[in-house]
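One chain given next:
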Amino acid sequence: MKKLPIIGGVAILGVFVLLSSVFVVDEREKALVLQFGQVRSVKETPGLSWKIPFIQEVVFYDDRILALDTQPLEVTPADDRRLVVDAFARYRISDVRQFRQAVGTGGVNAARDKLVPILNAALRDVLGTVPSNDVLSEERVALMARIRDQAISRSLNLGLEVIDVRIRRADLPDQNLAATFDRMQAEREREAADERARGKEAAQRVRADADRQALVTVSTAQRDSDIIRGEADAEKNRIYAEAYGRDAEFFNFYRSLAAYELSLAGKNSSMVLSPDSPFFDYFISPAGRPSGQ
């Protein structure tokens, strides 16, 4: 009967030792097996693994792509026009053994503290060799590739692999924005003044051309009118002369009727003439006053 508790205790101890010897490596992780602080093995394959209980310990590291966001950094491009650059990086732990040796027990936080100066130095080195317009143009893609390559070479001793570096934005410092905006506003106002001046000049040319064409058109019309009026008067005189040549008495009668119509056109017209005035010849007789009377 005394053997049963002993066997049970041994079984429980065996189960405890077995569980202490087994650990699971997740597919998103890598593991280091340490013995007295020294790396004994690296476990990168997902699944069950073994270690010596109570002597060895396991440290897990994230095998996924990690993000690194930096604080805005002021850089000076080749044209001495300062820019504030906001960048970020994507990286992963490529060599856990070297990573452990580089950062010790600090883990990912210590790695970030070491990676930030590397990224900032690469930003300054690359952006300091090009003008600011390249940073603000499509050339930025090639610049980011150069920054990434420099960061990769400088972070190899950390056991890290920099996968990508991106410039989120690049702006002028706050103290330069007001002066830049004022200069841009003055430039736009100058361009607007030039456009208005060119528009006024074009409008004056159009008005002058329109006035000239109007004057030419009116002059031409006046000339044509005078010509037509002169031709009509000539034709009228010719008809009058022809009519007079055919029947002088009828011509005199017609001219007298026209004179009566013109002189008596008003509503309150009045004339003071002698009754024996030649003007009334055709009032006395349709044939006119006989000659000698």
The two ends are 189 Å apart (CA to CA).
